[in-house]
């Protein structure tokens, strides 16, 4: 009889230990529910249950927040509130396992949310905190902070558009704070140079690494600060890197890679009043953009070109270019 009692107690303990926490069950129901309204109710319930269970550091807590962000029935205000809550509740619970690692992930997510909503002033603080935490946890030389990862394949290492340095720099630059962003751009470039070399060897398809994106970003930052001499050198260096890539990897026309560089050089020369060199580079940029497309960069370049045309007394052509950009923008917004 005593043996049977012991078996029953053991079985009950095993069952209790293997039973899923309530918030995980609710999360799974919310994920599988095709009714957005019911999924919303369940996501809120799962968040409340996770808070009560003290599961703030669990990965499932992140899954609940992701579900709230992705559910179209949640308003932007509600999504922001959920993200801020996930950070605030973590700040109150400093004893949880891997506290700083989880906080790093959460504040980055909050900053990314604000940036996606073009609330750059709000994005600045959490993105700065995330970078500070990342450096504390991993060290300033950590390649993943610059978005550089190993892919365990022939393209190791490769670069993803997830640099924490670039994310914060973007937030500053969107507010016109180019001087504050400059050291971040330089650090991002230095880390890419460390892992990819000065010539920035690319992956198989020319899109998985290298240094050109970081060179151009720094050059553009310096252009807005009127540091034209260094900005020009950087754009010319980026073209040399492109020549290396074409010669060793892609075997394609150089225009495939250099539209952004020519657009950047054109803007430097326009600002310096060198109409001839500016127009030459605008025309080169236009050829590449027309062939391969790049809507945001193309729009910016055409508006800069229109300004050059105005400055050189060609107002009618400038007006036609600006009107074409406006029509395309209106068409894009209606889609």
Helical stretch tally: 15
- Summarize model confidence as the mean pLDDT: 85
Q: How far do the termini sit from each other?
A: 75 Å
Task: Bin the strand percentage.
Answer: under 5%
Structural class: mainly alpha
The residue ranges in which pLDDT falls below 50 over 5 or more consecutive positions are 6-18, 203-207
Strand order of the largest sheet: 1-2
What does this structure look like?
By secondary structure, the chain is an all-alpha fold. It has a domain at 25-139: Serine Threonine Protein Phosphatase 5, Tetratricopeptide repeat (Alpha Horseshoe). Helices cover 74% and strands 1% of the residues. The chain is built from 15 helices and 2 strands. The protein has helices spanning 2-18, 22-32, 36-52, 59-70, 76-92, 99-116, 120-138, 164-173, 178-196, 212-224, 228-250, 255-272, 275-292, 295-311, 315-334; strands at residues 148-149, 158-159. It has a two-stranded antiparallel sheet. Strand 1 and strand 2 (158-159) form a beta hairpin. Helix 13 packs antiparallel against helix 14. 34% of the residues are buried.
Task: State the main characteristics.
two-stranded antiparallel sheet, Serine Threonine Protein Phosphatase 5, Tetratricopeptide repeat, 335 residues, mainly alpha
List the helices and strands and how they pair.
Layout (H helix, E strand, L loop, with lengths): L1 H17 L3 H11 L3 H17 L6 H12 L5 H17 L6 H18 L3 H19 L9 E2 L8 E2 L4 H10 L4 H19 L15 H13 L3 H23 L4 H18 L2 H18 L2 H17 L3 H20 L1
């Amino acid at each position: 009889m005593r043996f049977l009692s012991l078996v029953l107690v053991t079985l009950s303990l095993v069952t209790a230990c293997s039973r899923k926490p309530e918030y995980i069950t609710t999360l799974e129901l919310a994920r599988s529910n095709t009714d957005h309204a019911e999924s919303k109710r369940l996501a809120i319930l799962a968040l409340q249950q996770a808070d009560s269970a003290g599961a703030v550091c669990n990965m499932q807590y992140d899954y609940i927040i992701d579900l709230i962000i992705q559910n179209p029935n949640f308003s932007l205000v509600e999504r922001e509130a959920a993200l801020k809550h996930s950070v605030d509740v973590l700040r109150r619970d400093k004893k949880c396992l891997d506290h700083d690692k989880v906080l790093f992930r959460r504040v980055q997510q909050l900053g990314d949310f604000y940036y996606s909503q073009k609330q750059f002033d709000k994005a600045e603080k959490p993105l700065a905190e995330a970078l500070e935490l990342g450096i504390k946890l991993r060290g300033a030389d950590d390649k993943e902070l610059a978005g550089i990862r190993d892919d365990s394949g022939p393209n190791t290492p490769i670069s993803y558009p997830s640099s924490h340095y670039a994310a914060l720099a973007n937030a500053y630059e969107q507010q016109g704070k180019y001087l504050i962003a400059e050291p971040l751009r330089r650090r991002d470039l230095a880390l890419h140079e460390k892992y990819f070399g000065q010539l920035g060897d690319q992956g198989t398809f020319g899109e998985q690494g290298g240094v050109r994106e970081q060179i151009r970003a720094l050059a553009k930052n310096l252009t807005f600060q009127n540091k034209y001499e260094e900005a020009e050198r950087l754009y010319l260096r980026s073209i040399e890197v492109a020549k290396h890539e074409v010669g060793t990897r892609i075997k394609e026309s150089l225009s495939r890679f250099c539209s952004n560089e020519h657009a950047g050089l054109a803007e430097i020369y326009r600002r310096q009043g060198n109409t001839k060199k500016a127009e030459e580079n605008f025309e080169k940029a236009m050829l590449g953009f027309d062939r391969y497309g790049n809507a945001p960069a193309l729009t910016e370049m055409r508006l800069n070109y229109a300004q050059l045309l105005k400055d050189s007394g060609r107002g009618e052509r400038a007006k036609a270019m600006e009107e074409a950009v406006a029509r395309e923008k209106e068409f894009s917004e209606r889609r």
